[in-house]
Design a protein that fits this description.
Strand content: 15-25%
Number of helices: 5
Number of strands: 12
Largest sheet: 6 strands, parallel
Structural class: alpha/beta
Distance between the termini: 82 Å
Pfam families: F-box (PF00646), LRR_At1g61320_AtMIF1 (PF23622)
Helix content: 10-25%
Protein name: F-box/LRR-repeat protein 25-like
Domain F-box: 16-55
Organism: Nicotiana tabacum
Domain At1g61320/AtMIF1 LRR: 101-225
Radius of gyration: 22 Å
Strand order of the largest sheet: 3-5-7-8-10-12
């Protein structure tokens, strides 16, 4: 009876998880579907964050021709998958969160048929690894400080902004080199004091108050583009 128990216990063992991490990472890197790599995070505690060390690119697109309910379902499932995988996880202690440390490039654009903008989550304003960030049709409203210390390139397209929000964003990007503002509104003073930010592109600026002009103070800018 004791021998039978040992055999059963040996048969229940997860031999795959017992492999060294380098071998597991090599196996994950062989998967052609990057989303399948992320889904391995639900297998066990060991696998939860293992996929983060695999260089992958996640790309989600709404189904073409789908109804609003289809789009909402797809958005919810995508959000759930990212939460499970750890792209956006919240700290149990503080209630705040952060994007996964290994994410260096992130692009987000959501168009709502009800003309309601997706509000960029508060936990996402804290990230030390992002280098390229592109946001479209979102709402930026950081309640605290912004910390994108590694960000090099920032693109904001079709966003309503305020001078205060823009000031917070720029103060939280000490290494920013390139800033693109396309079809943005609400800002009237853009002050850039960083010596590292050398490229500024402003296209199709939306001036909702004809009595106010956009004032730009950027003494260190070397490449300035004003279009539209």
């Amino acid at each position: 009876m004791e021998m039978k128990r040992k055999v059963m216990a040996r048969g229940d063992r997860d031999w795959l998880s017992d492999l060294p991490d380098p071998i597991l990472l090599h196996i994950l890197s062989m998967l052609s579907n990057s989303k399948a790599v992320v889904r391995t995070s639900v297998l066990s505690r060991k696998w939860r964050f293992l996929w983060m060390s695999v260089p992958i690119s996640l790309d989600f697109h709404f189904p073409i021709g789908g109804s609003e309910n289809d789009n909402l379902f797809y958005l919810a499932s995508t959000h759930r998958e990212l939460i499970i995988g750890g792209i956006a996880r919240k700290s149990r202690n503080s209630g705040s969160g952060a994007l996964v440390a290994n994410v260096e490039s992130f692009a987000l654009g959501i168009i709502n048929t009800n003309h309601q903008r997706y509000e960029f989550p508060q936990f996402a304003y804290k990230n030390n690894s992002l280098r390229d960030l592109a946001l479209r049709y979102c709402q930026l409203n950081p309640t605290g400080s912004v910390n994108w210390s590694s960000l090099v390139s920032l693109s904001l397209v079709s966003l309503p902004l305020t001078d205060g929000v823009m000031e917070k964003v720029l103060s939280g990007c000490p290494n920013l080199e390139c800033l693109e503002l396309d079809s943005v509104s609400g800002i009237h003073r853009l002050e850039i004091s960083s010596v590292k930010l050398r490229e500024l592109s402003i296209q199709d600026y939306i001036n909702e108050n004809p009595d106010l002009w956009l004032e730009i103070l950027a003494p260190f800018i070397q490449n300035l583009q004003l279009l539209g």
